[in-house]
Structures are given as C-alpha cells and as structure tokens.
Amino acid sequence: MATRTAAQQREQARSAYDAFLRDCPTNQLLDRLSDKWVSLVVSALAPGPLRYSDLARRIAGVSPKMLTQTLRTLERDGILTRTVTPSVPVRVDYELTPLGRNLALLLTAVKDWAENHFDEVHAARLRYDADNTGA
Amino acid sequence: MATRTAAQQREQARSAYDAFLRDCPTNQLLDRLSDKWVSLVVSALAPGPLRYSDLARRIAGVSPKMLTQTLRTLERDGILTRTVTPSVPVRVDYELTPLGRNLALLLTAVKDWAENHFDEVHAARLRYDADNTGA
DNA sequence: CGGTATCCTATTGGATACTG
DNA sequence: CAGTATCCAATAGGATACCG
User: Fold this and answer.
1) Residue A50 backbone dihedrals phi, psi, to 5 degrees
2) pLDDT reading at B94 higher than 70
3) Domain range for residue A62?
4) Is nucleic acid strand D under 7 Å from A63's C-beta?
5) Is residue A72 situated within a structural domain?
6) pLDDT of residue A134
7) Residue B13 confidence (pLDDT)
8) Nearest nucleotide relative to B66: CA against C1'
9) Between chains, do B36 and A58 touch, taking CB under 8 Å as contact?
10) B70 CA, D7 C1': separation in Å?
11) pLDDT computed for residue A16 by the predictor
12) What is the overall mean pLDDT for chain A?
C-alpha cells in the first residue's frame, strides 16, 4: 500500500497552483466560482437537467442577461452542457457535466450552509450592532 | 434513539429559508459568502489565528481597504473574532469562531477545487473557443 | 421559447496618502 | 503595526425592448 511516492509527489508538484496568489490563474477561477449566480445555477441543476425557462423560474428574479451570461461562462468552463432541440418552438436543456456535478456538491453545501446558519449569523449581527451603538 | 420526530420536524420547518428566492435573507447571505475575499480570508484563517499583516502577506495583493472591509463584515457576521493586544505597537489577531471553522470547511473545499481542477477547466475553455472560432 | 442588444445606475475595488 | 480616508476607473447587473 506504500506505492504512492514518486508518481504522487509529481502529481502534487504539478498542481502547484496557489489561489492565494493574485496572479495565479486559479485565483481568477476562484473569483468566478465565488459568484451568487454560479452557486444558484449549479445548485439548481444538481438534481437534474433543466430548460432555460425552468431555471429562470427557479432562480426567482434573475434577469435574462445574468442568466444567459452565467450559463455561457459555465458552458465554456466545462461545468455544464447546452443542448438545443430544434423543435417548434425551440427547446434548450442545460445539464451538469461530471465536472459540474463534482463542483455542485461543494456549491450546494455553501448554499445550504447559508440557509441553515442564517439565524446564527443574524444573531451575531444584532450582538455586534448592539455592542457598537453609541459606544 | 427515535426521539427525533415532532421537535426535529418543527426545526426543519422553521428553517424554511430558500436561497433561490431573491427576497429571502439567505439569498443575501449567499451573496456575501460568494466572495473571493471571503473565501481567501476564511481559508487563510482555517489553520489558525493570524495577525492583520500576516493576512495581508498571505493573501497576496489584497488592498488594505478590501482586507479591512472583509474582516469587519466577517466579524459582524460572527465568522471570526478580532482581538486587540494594546502593546507597542498594537497587535491585532483574527481567529475563526466555531461557526467560522464550520464554514471554512466548505470554502476551503471550493478554493481547493479551483486549484485541483483548473487544468480541466482550462482545457474545456480551449475546446469551447476552438469550436466557436469563425464558425 | 430562448434568447440578444442597449442603456444606465450602483457597487466594487485598486491606488494612494495619511493617522493613532 | 493596523488600519482610515478619499478619489476614481472598471465592472456588475437591473430594466427594457426587440428578434429568430
């Protein structure tokens, strides 16, 4: 079971990316992933494929501009696929790729965290604001 | 061990927050968490407390403005604590709260994902751009 | 249905200089 | 050391109207 030396070490070294460095490309990628629209779109697609209008309805209040922009970027990044069915009228389905499903595990976790811990955060805000009132 | 019925069900119902809804407060919270600076600060503090200047050095290229702004917001939200030691010169330490450490597990996972899957994303971009050149 | 195009405002965030 | 304050350029993102 100790066959993880040279090959694994090279593997480690090869992905010597560090998102803490401003000029590292992974820093920009982290910036892209750290986007509310990305979180919502990827989370929405986690259970299964959806059409454009389904997504628009699910992500309440998203403008067509932001929805399309986010979908295009995620398609380009290999997170999801866009499938056009040339019926009348047209039908377009969006589906996570294996890479996207992998990412979805993390992003839905963040979204769920926000939902599950909002009360604690809210309480912390009230405490902070109370302590810093007129002090 | 089967004492998780009524109380737990109410617990579930009580946190009926849905971040997909624009006007749900958790949507705003998700927006806050979906921030590159938040990810980096929380990830940087995951191993242990750091001083202001340590953070500035670790998160290469962050401006004092963004660093302070991010730290204040996270402090208000109960994610981290700020401890001033009135020595000469002053010493200020930032440390994750239990809530923050919990969140850090998720955010460092996203940061690590960016580092570990950048090559795949980059390859996808090249493919996308090649397919959409002059087409 | 599934977008695109344009306009316009608000916010983000870097650079810079100064302070207790 | 650990910020604060100010200015300003760039970007995000909503509203709206139109198109294949």
Assistant:
1) -140, 155
2) yes
3) 38-131
4) yes
5) yes
6) 57
7) 53
8) C13
9) no
10) 21
11) 81
12) 90
Question: What's the predicted TM-score (pTM) here?
Answer: 0.90
Chain A within 8 Å of B47 (Cβ-Cβ)?
A: no
B110 and A31 within 8 Å at the Cβ level: the answer is no
C-alpha to C-alpha distance for A44 and A55, rounded to whole angstroms: 7
Is A13 among the domain residues?
no
Q: What is the pLDDT of residues A49-78, one digit of tens each?
A: 999 999 999 999 899 999 999 999 999 999
Reading the block at residue A89, the tokens are 């009228």
| CA B59 from centroid of its chain's CA atoms | 14
HSE-CB of B14 using CA atoms within 13 angstroms:
10
**Residue B115 located in a structural domain:** yes
Token output for B74: 């996270």
The CATH number covering residue A111 comes to 1.10.10.10
The residue with tokens 């660093």 is B67
Nucleotides in C strand less than 7 A from protein CB = 1-6, 13-17, 20
Q: Is the confidence at residue B8, as pLDDT, over 70? A: no
| Residue A107 resides in a domain | yes
Give the whole-angstrom CA distance, residue A128 versus residue B101.
19
Nearest nucleotide to B94 by CA–C1' distance?
A: D2
Residue nearest to nucleotide D2 (CA to C1'): B52
- Domain count of the fold of chain B: 1
Residues of A numbered 65-94 whose beta carbons fall under 8 angstroms of chain B's beta carbons: which are they?
Answer: 75-79
- pLDDT tens digits for range B27-62: 999 999 999 999 999 999 999 999 999 999 999 989
Whole-number pLDDT of residue A132: 85
Q: By the 8 A CB rule, do A16 and A25 touch?
A: no
